[in-house]
Amino acid sequence: MTRFAAVDLGASSGRVMVGDESLRLTEVHRFSNGAAVRDGALRWDVRRIFREILYGLQQAGPVDSIGVDSWGVDYGLLGEDGGLLREPVCYRDGRTAETRALALQRLGAAGLYEASGLQPHPINTVFQLMADDLTGAATMLLIPDLIAYWLTGERGAEITNASTTGLLDVHTRTWSESLTSALNIPSRILPPLRHPGTPIGPLNPVCSPEPAGPFPAWKAEVVAVASHDTASAVAAAPATNESFAYISCGTWSLVGVELREPVLSEASRTGNFTNEVGLGGTTRYLRNVMGLWLLQECLAAWGSPDLPGLLEAAARAPRLRSLVDAADPAFLAPGGMPGRIAAACRDTGQPEPSTPPETVRCILESLALAHRAAVQDATRLSGHRVEVVHLLGGGARNRLLCQLTADACGLPVVAGPAEATALGNVMVQARTAGVAGDLRALVAATQRLETFHAQDTSGWAEAQAALDDAKAKGGKP
Ligand code: LFR
């Protein structure tokens, strides 16, 4: 039996899983993750993450290969000596407000979209690099590439994640010289691109920031997977044909369709759709929706109350009473989320949720509404047919959210796998090890899935129209 280790890093937790050719997955280590303010910025403790990964690999024991995926856009800078210059800054840090405006001014919103295919989201790497001090920087490595470098000593940029930077040419899928030169980003810091399924190198502690002790003593190849977590999750959608939309639902909800070609129309740009690279060279045509971040932040503010009880109470709370725009970057920054949600309701002339269950109801319905809008817009803007929605990732465990999403979309929602990202990671390793056949069909056959049929579809269109109207009149989200 071949054993694969999937290192899967999320913004709120990371895990090391072991999988095999039949896509049986076992979690061997899970750890919490989160950004914290240090040295004047919101940062990731990436060395601690690396220590947790090494511990997880110890727990895994000898494996044949290792793949690493994580959230997109964030990076570490290596100095000339190969050491990390500073702790990576988190995309939720507010440092990009001015640089984003500057890039839009230099290239125009249409020019930027035509070149990169991305919505000009404040989180994009390009705006972060423009805000960064690049003095002494030799190489920019995205988070999974940084981990792979520490595991092997090899530098590169895996393409699905490179496509979240805003520096990849959407047509040629190579680093864009015109973007780097127009935005004064030294192209020498961008490492060579690599594709999922490419061997990166054998385990080698030569560049590890940790002492040799915790480093695996066994031999294994580190393989490039679809290292953007969303690309791995979409790869593991248990789709039986092409007519599906996906919601990769965790800290974010990434909602869209899988296409053969990017969509770069003006309507697509103003509709805030992004064209990222998927496994097998597909286009992940999607919109970023805030996702369970809204809930996670409220739970933190309430001192981590009993979630199942809260969800039960939310299920009984009044329907479609107050809704916010869950795709609005106004919710990006951490802190004070219950108050910010209440304020957004007030600013749009709706009752303020006044208890935690009411706030949870507001969040989940707002997410369902944003899922609906993104599925409908993706369908309209791409012409792609959608018969079913695959809700992938941790959000698949939230049955109320799944049902509300089915109701709002008026479509069946197939929920699961909850561990889609790690599965997608294992799938690429299995393929690289020679496993043939339709791996999506294997996911459908082997993983626990639940279908939610649309039940109460009334009121959602009106709710969307009312929210659009209130926002147009100047109300905040
Ligand atoms: C999901 C995700 C999204 C990306 C956001 C920031 O975890 O990777 O796809 O837009 O995080 O990196």
UniProtKB/TrEMBL annotation:
<dbReference type="InterPro" id="IPR018485">
    <property type="entry name" value="FGGY_C"/>
</dbReference>
<keyword id="KW-1015">Disulfide bond</keyword>
<keyword id="KW-0418">Kinase</keyword>
<dbReference type="InterPro" id="IPR018484">
    <property type="entry name" value="FGGY_N"/>
</dbReference>
<comment type="similarity">
    <text>Belongs to the FGGY kinase family.</text>
</comment>
<dbReference type="Pfam" id="PF00370">
    <property type="entry name" value="FGGY_N"/>
</dbReference>
<dbReference type="Pfam" id="PF02782">
    <property type="entry name" value="FGGY_C"/>
</dbReference>
<dbReference type="InterPro" id="IPR043129">
    <property type="entry name" value="ATPase_NBD"/>
</dbReference>
<keyword id="KW-0547">Nucleotide-binding</keyword>
<keyword id="KW-0808">Transferase</keyword>
<feature type="domain" description="Carbohydrate kinase FGGY N-terminal">
    <location>
        <begin position="6"/>
        <end position="205"/>
    </location>
</feature>
<dbReference type="GO" id="GO:0016740">
    <property type="term" value="F:transferase activity"/>
</dbReference>
<keyword id="KW-0067">ATP-binding</keyword>
<keyword id="KW-0684">Rhamnose metabolism</keyword>
<feature type="domain" description="Carbohydrate kinase FGGY C-terminal">
    <location>
        <begin position="245"/>
        <end position="432"/>
    </location>
</feature>
<dbReference type="InterPro" id="IPR013449">
    <property type="entry name" value="Rhamnulokinase"/>
</dbReference>
<protein>
    <submittedName>
        <fullName>Rhamnulokinase family protein</fullName>
        <ecNumber>2.7.1.-</ecNumber>
    </submittedName>
</protein>
